[in-house]
Structure formats: C-alpha cells, structure tokens
Automatic annotation (TrEMBL):
Domain Lipoyl-binding: 1-76
Organism: Thermogemmatispora tikiterensis
Documented EC number(s): 2.3.1.-
Name of the protein in its database record: Dihydrolipoamide acetyltransferase component of pyruvate dehydrogenase complex
Any one GO MF annotation of this record: acetyltransferase activity
Amino acid sequence: MVEFRLPDLGEGMEEAEIRRWLVRVGERVTAYQAIAEVETDKAVTEITSPVTGRVAEIRVGEGARARKGEVLVVFEEEAATPAGERAQSSPVTAATTATAATTEATLASGGSTAQTGAGVATAVAPATGAASGGRRRVLAAPAVRKLAFELGVDLEQVPPSTPEGRVTLADVRAFAERQRTATAGPRPETAQPSGTVAPAPANGAQPQPGAAPAPEEERQALTGLRRRIAERMERSWRSIPHATAFDEADGGALVALREALLPVAERRGLRLTYLPLLVKLLIPVLKEFPIFNASLDEERREIVYKRVYHIGIATASPEGLLVPVLRHADRLSLAQVASELERLVEGGRRRTLGLHELTGSTFTLNNVGSFGGSSGTPIINYPEAAILAVGRLQEKAVVRNGSLVARPVLPLALSFDHRLIDGAQAGAFLARFKELVENPQQLLLDLV
C-alpha cells in the first residue's frame, strides 16, 4: 500500500481544500494521472498520482480541508508483472483494462504534461481515458463548473463544443435549456366533481395534486474561495481596528490626461483605463507616507516598513474576490503598468494566476467604480496597514468661484489600521493623493 500525502503547494500554504475527486475507490490509475482538484487560499490546481495502481481508500472527502503532509488517498501499487499474468490476477473487467490501456497510451504519447516530484499537474489530462469505469474527466474552467452547479447540470453529460473537448459556458446553458424543454410537458388534467369548480391560485398557477410544499430556505456549505474570503475578512476585521476617511477629488485633469494618452496607447495595443494612472499617482504618496506601506508584526510588536511597492488590485472573479499583485509598481512605466494590470486582472477573473501572483502585496487599491460602485468602506487586506477604494467617476454639481458647475468627481475612501495610523495622517494622505489626481502633471517633477 502507498499512502499519498498532500504535497507542498508552495508560497507557505499549509492546507488546501479537496475541491473534487477525479477518481473513485477501486479505480485503476496510472502514474502522473490527475486524481483530484485542490484549492488553496488563492488558486485551484490538480494533484497527480505518484504510482500506477488501484485506489484502495480515499481518506479526505470533497469539501474537507487537509494539512500539508496529511494522507489523502491510499493506493494499492500495481506489481510490475507481465500483461498476461496481470490480466489473470486482476479483477478489472476487459472494458476497464481497455480504458486504462488507452490512458497509458495517451500519456506515453505526450498527450499530457505532468510535473514530476511535486505531485502537482501542470496541464489537464485529456478527457478520454482519464478515469476508468466509464467516467470521463471533464475539461471545464471553474466558472463553467460554478454555472453547472447553479443550474443543476451534470458536467459529465454535457457534450463539449471545442475541438480539445473542453466544456464552455455556452455548452452548459444550452444543455440546461434542453433539459428544461425535455422535462416541460403538458400537465395532466385532474377530473373535477360535477358541478364544482376548483379555486384558482392567486398567482394564476395551476395546483399540483399531492405536491410537497416548497422549502422556505436552502442551506449550502461555505466552501472553496468563498470560505477563504470569509476567513480572511473575519481575521482582518477582528485583528485590525478599522477607521475610514472619505474625500472627493475633481477628476477633470485626470480625464483630460487619459484622453490625451489614449491614441498613443491604442497605437501600442494597450488598453489604458484610469487604473494604471491611479497606480502611478499612488506610488509617490506611499513614499511620502511610508506608514501606509507597512504592517504590524503582532507577535514581536514591531512596525514593518516595506521598501518595495507591491500593489494589490482587488478583482472580482466569478467565484469571489481575488487580489492579484502588481509587483515593483514603482519601477514600471505607465505603459508597463497598463499591460501588466490587464494580464493580472484577466488572469484573476479566469483563476489562472499562480500563487506568487496573488500574495505579497504591501498596499491594496480597490477600484469599486469598475463595477458601478460609488463609495463604501473597504476592508483592509490583512496584514497590510491600509486600503484605498476609488469610486465611479461621475459628474456632480459643485461650487466653483461662487457658481454651480458640473464637474467629474472621483470618490475616495481610505480604510486604515488605527493602531498604526491616526486620523490626521489619513487626512494628509488623502489630501496629497487628491492633489495629484487634480494636478497629475506634478509627476513630471519626479521623472529621472
């Protein structure tokens, strides 16, 4: 028997959640075949079998968490015997043997790439032959799996539309619609006693004889990324005494600057939003107020000032909030910031970023305006000292020189750790950032 333990997934991750088992007890697996999907604080990855053999026991169920080094599954290793003897001694059926042989042939021909040693697959195995006993390995992104769960669709029944056999969001929606159409049919008419009329429901729907009353609530386990978000939010709110300062900046100059740079950016193939500009405006303010780019070592009771500027960018994914990290933002040009931000945000939404791209931020910028928000109280990304939320840029009536005029206004909300930062410092930080937003040309003074 071979005990397979949760491997080191990197970045100091000490535990992971078993998102989905790709094999069952009794199935035959080959070395480096994907056997489970696991989810850490930030990423979803696959782990692979270290041996060729049969699954004897699964010790950690789906939705449960395991710590690094904990036994996940036990294999009965297959002896290196001739094929004829193996066929006589093994209880596997001919169909299963054929499926396993197909898997071995596919792996041998380079149909899948696996990372040896660590036990973590770097590519998804082909859908055919990935599991025996007639169960195929479904290729689908996390967003597709989430949609299938919400619609009650079994992904194994959905025919893929892509050449490589990957199930898409459109495939799931089309399958769900076909299911709904197939199950919807004429309702049988119930005979009524002569001379009586059944009362019609208030909403016009026909009553179903003997139908159970609809449940008044539904419970769902808090799992995956949503549970990680809940845990991090709880830790931040319980550990850090939050305070929030609010302000508004006139965004007229920022709008004009972006409009001037937009044609140049488009010629270079860059998508220039306001976010890269805000990042570049933020860096000199963090350098001027270093306490905002710091954290508190709670065990040693020391303030840790960071000499790097790794800006976390709060990003909404289909499964919840992620914070990709723009590393060394102070060393990047505006064009480089724009390019890297586009890659990170898209990777965050698709859940394709590595752990090193989702950890290590020193300050977080939350652009709530990107999804229509105007303002709010951001929660600090523990263990950072502060977070800045920027709302939707919109026209408002403001007073200028005694007259009422319409101006583009940018809402600002700065949450800070009140153990390290006082209200006066927060006000000064916001005032300086507001000054740069309203006069972005000041950055030219700091160019080398």
